[in-house]
Structures are given as structure tokens and as C-alpha cells.
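Re: the request from the purification team.
They wanted to know what the chain is likely to look like in 3D before they choose a buffer screen. I agreed to run a prediction and write the result into the notebook, where they can find it.
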Amino acid sequence: MVLLSSYFSEPLPPSIDSLLNQREKVRQRFPPSHRSPWRMSRRAVLFSTGDTALACFYRIYQFIVVDWNVALRNELEYFCIMNPDWAVADLPDPADTQDPARYAVLAGITYLLCEAFNRRIELGLPRDAPPIVEDWEELARRPKVLERVPAWAQRVPPLENVLRIPNSKGRYVEEGGPEVCEPFRKLNILMHQPHIHFV
């Protein structure tokens, strides 16, 4: 059983190779609520016990690398909706000098967060929108405050050599293919576009 306190330590997460070689261990490391539809009870517990944006960001990284779509979507919703004060631009720089590949993936994820959250915002759903919208006109009157990529992520250079990350079925995406993740491609990483939209 995983202690909740393990969610709140924020050392750098495992390397990409380590995650890919132990996909099932990643799934076992997180409670069952990551494998089922989004549960407010789990979120309330985490929120009340001191979860952080960086810890959540590192969970998103793990779910993206191992291609665990249900957990990824749940974590994106948690970051976006339950914690509207967690600005993407304020994510601290992991300063990952030991592992350029992991650093590049982390940088690429900030672009995906902005893409996912800004799509909702452009559709009229600010991050602090109520779970059940009763007054769409009031939401429409609010200024659209879009998320921004952190400055550190914009400075992360592309990898010298192409990094190919397979999906959960062990398949690789081809460069120029319709399924390639564009923010990662710009960092010289080829992987399938993760399922980041949850509207």
C-alpha cells in the first residue's frame, strides 16, 4: 500500500527508461482511484493534506511516459479544476542537469498543459468554473486568463539525438505521422500525442 505522504515528496521522478521498463510498477505505485473515473474523495484528501503543483506535475510525467490515459486525464482534471491557483507558468524549474531526456519531456509537458487548459478557457470554462455551470453568461463575462509555458521550459534545448518513446502497446510513432506529439517533436522526442483534452 502506498502512503499518501509519498505523493508529497518532490525529488525528480524516475528516468524514462526506468518507467518504460517497469510500467506495471508505475500502476501499482498509485491508488486505485487513478485507475477509475475521477473521484472527488481522493482529490479532497490530497488537497487537504498538502499536495503541490510540482508533485502533480511529476505524476503527469509518469502517466504520459507509460501511456496511462485514464490516470493522465484524472490528474489533468485535478491540476486544472481542483487547483486553479496552480499556474502552469509558476511550475518551478526542475533543473534536471543529470538527465537531458527527462528534462526535455518535462518541458514538453508544460506545453501540453497549456494546450489542454487553454482549450477549456477558450471554450468559456475558466479554471475556477464551478463543477455544474448554472450561469453561462456570468462565465462569458469573465476575462479569459490563458496559461503560459514557464520561462525555464522555453529554454530547454532539443535533444541532440532523437528519443523515441513507445506507447503502452510498444508501438512507435513515425516522424511526420498524424499521431506525433508536436510539442515533443520540437524537442526531438517522437511519441504519440497523449490524450490531454477533457472537455
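For the purification team: Residues 1 and 31 are 8 Å apart (CA to CA).
Please add any questions underneath this entry.
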